[in-house]
Amino acid sequence: MEHLTLKGTDLKVSPICLGTWQFNDSSKDITWPAQSAEESKAIVDKCIELGINFFDTAEAYKNSEKVLGNALEGRRRDVVVASKFGFREGPGTPPYSAKEIEEALTRSLTNLKTDYIDILQIHFPSFVKDAKETIAELERQKALGRIRYYGLSNYGPKNMKEFMEAGGKPVVNQIGYNLLWRSPELAMIPDCRKYGINLLAYSPLQQGLLTGKFSKLSDVPEGRRRGKLFNKDSTPLARHGQEGCEQEVDEALKKISEICKEANVAMNSAALSWILQQDGVEVVIAGASTPQQVIDNSKIVQLENDVIRKMTEATEPVKKKIGATLDQWAPVDRCE
Ligand SMILES: NC(=O)c1ccc[n+]([C@@H]2O[C@H](COP(=O)([O-])OP(=O)(O)OC[C@H]3O[C@@H](n4cnc5c(N)ncnc54)[C@H](OP(=O)(O)O)[C@@H]3O)[C@@H](O)[C@H]2O)c1
């Protein structure tokens, strides 16, 4: 797999990053089923075999850092690891002071069995107590060699502007972006380009919807129906309180399926390739529950312009209904 150099860094990464929210050491969470550490290790092994050298984790992903650290033993220096601080006390986590950032980083280094993290990201803007204090601490950790770079996650245009004006030098912003979740096109993707920040697209398969494996939306597991694409009554787990756009999503998926059949490309490949062919998006962060999914997702293709155009058109009604919101889950947008 061809690697690219992330802008503003010397990090050479695959355009597919493995997302490891699913690495839970056999303890399922609200979104993902149980995955054993052995299954996670087999996924990591498959990535490395295929040239996927970029891994995304977070202190918030139950057991993920530990499972990833164990799976990478002996190979840490061959790969690029991004983690995040935030959610030490769940959704009500108060913002981090410099000392709390340092403590979180120490925990992450221990979990990951490493002495450096390539990119430490701020999981949500709300975890920043004071931008200048946070930036000074991240720069200090960089100087100590405990992190190589720092980055953002779930930053909206206003959040990013404030962080940049405070003197921040983030190298990435990771945000939900896929054919069914295109709100970043309105401002976030152009802003990342303007600031020279790499945009990493998370949930690129919209948590499995864009693989074509669910014949109807009600087949999507409950924890993945919590977001704003679905009606608030689709599951009691939803907290956004909105009507969603299930009809538009259903119609879009049917059209995408037809377009993929005509173009003779699997839907998962088409969905990932569509993102990577958008201007200003460097990397997709895709999760997996099996090594076979990693193989399937590694098949990035060059889609014809006409196919790109048709796929884009198919999801315009969803884009229109979703509007500018960047946050799929919370009633009040956490990404401003
Ligand atoms: N910064 C943030 O706030 C944030 C938020 C969300 C995600 N992320 C990051 O982004 C990563 C990816 O996002 P995500 O996990 O939400 O969504 P995703 O990558 O769109 O979906 C991953 C899931 O889709 C299914 N899948 C993947 N490939 C498949 C294939 N080829 N065929 C059929 N099914 C397939 C698997 O679930 P099943 O097999 O169980 O169906 C897999 O766990 C996360 O792991 C995390 O690292 C970050």
TrEMBL record:
Keywords (A to Z) from UniProt: Ion channel, Ion transport, Oxidoreductase, Transport
Listed InterPro entries: AKR, AKR_Detox_Biosynth, NAD(P)_OxRdtase_dom_sf, NADP_OxRdtase_dom
Highest rank taxon of the organism: Eukaryota
All residue ranges annotated as the NADP-dependent oxidoreductase domain in the record: 15-314
Keyword GTP-binding on entry: no
Residues annotated as signal peptide: none
Entries under Pfam families matching the protein: Aldo_ket_red
SUPFAM superfamilies in alphabetical order: NAD(P)-linked oxidoreductase
Keyword Transport assigned: yes
Molecular-function GO terms, alphabetical: oxidoreductase activity
Gene3D superfamilies linked: NADP-dependent oxidoreductase domain
Gene Ontology terms describing biological process: monoatomic ion transmembrane transport
Family in the record: Belongs to the aldo/keto reductase family. Aldo/keto reductase 2 subfamily.
Protein name: Voltage-gated potassium channel subunit beta-1
